[in-house]
Amino acid sequence: MKDTKTRRERNPASCHRSGGLTAHQAAVITIGRLLVAYRVNRRSEQRAELLGMARMAAALGALDAATHAFLLDLVAADCRPSGPEVH
User: Fold this and answer.
1) What distance in Å separates the CA atoms of residue 61 and residue 67, rounded to the nearest whole number?
2) Is the whole model's pTM more than 0.85, yes or no?
3) How far apart are CA 45 and CA 31, in angstroms?
4) How do residues 2-60 score in pLDDT, each as one tens digit?
5) DSSP-assigned letter for residue 61
6) Which of 81, 4, 74, 78 is nearest to 32 (CA)?
7) Please, which contacts does 62-66 make with residues 24 or more away whose CB atoms are closer than 8 Å?
8) CA triplet 41, 42, 44: central angle to 5 degrees?
């Protein structure tokens, strides 16, 4: 059997679950990481993964309706046309 540290290094999410975090906190951490990657790269597959993960977390009760709606607003804001550029 491998030691706990080695297993945590391979799967960082496991240390969150064993660290006493609630399901809500773990969901926010995981979805937050996806959101940052999406905001940096703006790839459609990252957006789909982010929305799917948020939908799953909400369905499982790890995200409350307000947090889920806020996340959807953040992602929707990325799709809106931006205002005129100021130089």
Assistant:
1) 11
2) no
3) 14
4) 555 544 555 555 554 557 999 999 999 999 999 999 999 999 999 999 999 999 999 99
5) T
6) 74
7) 62/23, 62/24, 62/26, 62/27, 63/24, 63/27, 63/28, 63/31, 64/24
8) 120
